[in-house]
């Protein structure tokens, strides 16, 4: 995607296909506020949350050149696994955050010889009325937590809310999240909920609104 109009068109298409704003945010690798703004710009939504200058402050990360090619995706996942390779001695489970984190977690799990689990976060159900959303969930089709040490894998960190939710959900299942890894960290965080975060790329915004 080369400009804002491409993002607006994509948001419109996804909204017309019935995706929630949370799912649109996930698909476009933007914040929920940005997703809401893009849908409104496309004429298919209601009034979004915006910043004082009329638009949200965000950075779009387009990693489709990696995602659409299985060979590139494997090597990206292998690099993420390398970042985790010396973090924890007894980790035998990798949790991928759906949707985009799951294929990356598959490679990480293979490289580090762990079981594979997936977590569907609450944001996928978010639209205009957050009171109607339900909790996230672990897929029963994959490995379960069962009090195990684990890694957490996603594609990007925008606000850190989804990663934090996943860490909390793992703790609720009796698990111990040892480390998190993402392709790109838009916040430059060192840890979330006390769990270290590693990334292949850190995106730092430099401007009047600060460094994040």
Q: Order of strands in the sheet with the most strands?
A: 3-2-1-4-5-7-6
Estimated structural class: alpha/beta
H/E topology pattern: HHHHHEHEEEHEEE
**How many individual domains?**
2
Shape: globular
Number of strands: 7
Instruction: Calculate Rg over CA atoms.
Output: 17 Å
Distance between the termini: 22 Å
CATH topology of the largest domain, what is it called? Rossmann fold
Overall pLDDT score: 84
CATH architectural group of the largest domain: 3-Layer(aba) Sandwich
Give the class-level CATH name of the largest domain.
Alpha Beta
Largest sheet geometry: 7 strands, mixed
The number of distinct helices, counting runs of at least 4 residues, comes to 7
- Portion in beta strands: 15-25%
Uncertain segments = 46-53
Oligomeric organization of the protein chains: single chain
Describe this structure in words.
With 212 residues, this protein is of the alpha/beta class. The protein has two domains: 1-60, no CATH class; 64-202, 3-Layer(aba) Sandwich (Rossmann fold). The chain contains seven helices and seven strands, in the order αααααβαβββαβββ. The chain has a seven-stranded mixed sheet. α6 links the parallel β1 and β2 (115-120). The longest helix is centred in the middle third of the chain and has 15 residues, at 70-84. The model is unreliable at 46-53 (pLDDT under 50).
